[in-house]
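Long-time lurker. I teach an intro course on protein structure, and each term I like to show students one example going from raw sequence to a predicted 3D structure in token notation. This year I'd like something fresh instead of my usual example. Would anyone be willing to generate the tokens for the chain below so I can use it in lecture? Attribution to the forum is fine with me.
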Amino acid sequence: MNLGIINKKRMPVDAKHHIFEEITYQVDGLKVRGLLMLPNENVKRIVVYLRGGKGQVGKVRTGRLMQFADAETLVFGPYYRGNNGSEGKDEFYGADLHDVTEAVRILHQLYPDCAIHMVGFSRGGLQGLLTFQDLPVSSYIIWGGVSDIYLMYEERIDLRGMLKRMVGHPRKQADAYHERDAIAQITASSPPILIVHGGQDQQVGIHNAYYLADQLDKIGTTYRTFYQMEEGHVPRPFALTNTLSCVKQWMMDVETGNIKSHKSSK
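-- Reply from a regular --
Happy to contribute to a lecture. Here you go:
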């Protein structure tokens, strides 16, 4: 049984503990692609990386996936429909969300005993917030991520033209924006969330993180924050090491039941 995977292509990546494959899987009748980093050892943890950007900007790269890996961690990054050879059209938080949910379900079927952690970076932040609560995942990490579609429209004047083309205007196409309101779908029983953000982020302002944390407080969702106030959208190398240590410690804490409090900030 292929569980939705219809093609695998070995990628020429030299990695000590993993092989890389570009896989094609079926979603809504479309052939959607993604990059899979498969460990040589038994799989004990799965990380699903949700890319930022659109098209070639922010595309899934091997280096990004390798950040989250160890010898027993599988990492997968969906390209989203309409990107990098995937069929269909990117709808920017529309039906492309199915590319995320189907990937997670396939991985869960293949490795039912493994913890699954979703990581949403930049645009992928909202991609994850709109899907994680209904999936068999252990936690969600939103990293430099968009948390609110309305904030995105207000903040990124340079992206308004694209948002109007792909989603519409917040007032004229109110239903489309309401469907993309992730906060309204999160509950107190949603999987725990780690919020990672840089204080100098010029692409996705840190108020996205503050707003999300404030809303999670009101909802009662378990979360933790990790703010690096001197860093931008992507941390500098020395700060990136600390970020990745925090993310991996979070995954371990979730898996061992050490996420105790409703709010725990770092």
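Some talking points for your students: The helical segments are 62-66, 97-110, 123-129, 149-155, 160-166, 174-179, 207-219, 237-255. The chain has one domain: 5-147+182-258.
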